[in-house]
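ugh ok fine here u go
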Amino acid sequence: MTRIHAVLIGINKYTDPSIPDLSYARQDASALRDLLAGSAHASSVVTYPLLDSAATRANIIDFIGVELPGQSRKDDIVLIYFAGHGSPEIHPGLDRLSRFLVCHDTTRAGLLSTAIDVRMDLGRLAARFTSRLVLFVLDACFSGYGGGRGIAGPRLEERRRLNRPRPRLDALPLGAGLVFLAACADDEVAWEEPRLGHGLFSYHLLAELSTPGSTDVIGLPTLYDLIYERVRAQSGGRQNPILWGNVQGARLPRLI
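structure:
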C-alpha cells in the first residue's frame, strides 16, 4: 500500500533578533497537517510536524536524513513542506549565489553553517530515499526583498550595492523522482496575506488539494497550473509559483 510521509515545517519565530518573525508560516504547516489527517486517505498518511522551536537545523536534517528514510518504502510518496524564510547569500571567495531555508535557530551572519542549503543539503537528503517520489513544497522566497518570507544574507546585501545577481532556482540539477514546487520565482516575494490568515501560495495549495475533482488524484502539473493562476491573479502578477523536476506521472491524492 502506498503511503504518504509528510514532513510539515512551519516557522514563525526565530532566535536571531535580526531575522523578523512571520505571522502565518506555522499556521500553514498546521493546516496542511490537519487537511492530511482529516482526509479520506488519513489511514495512508503519516505526518511529522516540526514547528517553531522544533524546526532547528539539526532536527530537520536528522529527521529527513536519518529517521524518515528508514520509515518510507519504494512505493511511498515523501512530501516535505517548508513554510518560513528563505534567504539568498554569496559564499565567501565564490562568485556563486546560494539559496537557504532559514531554520528556527539560524543566524543571519552564519547562513552557511546554520541554515539549509537548497542545492547542497536538499539534494543530498533526497538521495537517501528509495521512494518513487520526493516532493519539496517551499513557501519561502529567495529574492531577499523585505515584506514576505525572505531575508537577504549580509554578503549579498553588500554585493547588491554594486551589481545584483540574477539567480535561477529552477536551474538546479535534480535527479529522477525529485520535484520542487515553490511559492515564487527567484526575484519575487512570497507574500503573507492577513485577510486569508495564510501565505498566499499555501492558501491556494490547501484550497486546490481539498477541491473535489473527477478523479481521486490530481497530477502535479495540473495542481501547479491551478495554483499558479490563482496566486498570479490575486497578487497582481507580483508572485508566480514555479514547478521543476521530473514530474512525469507524479500525482497526489485529493484531500477531501
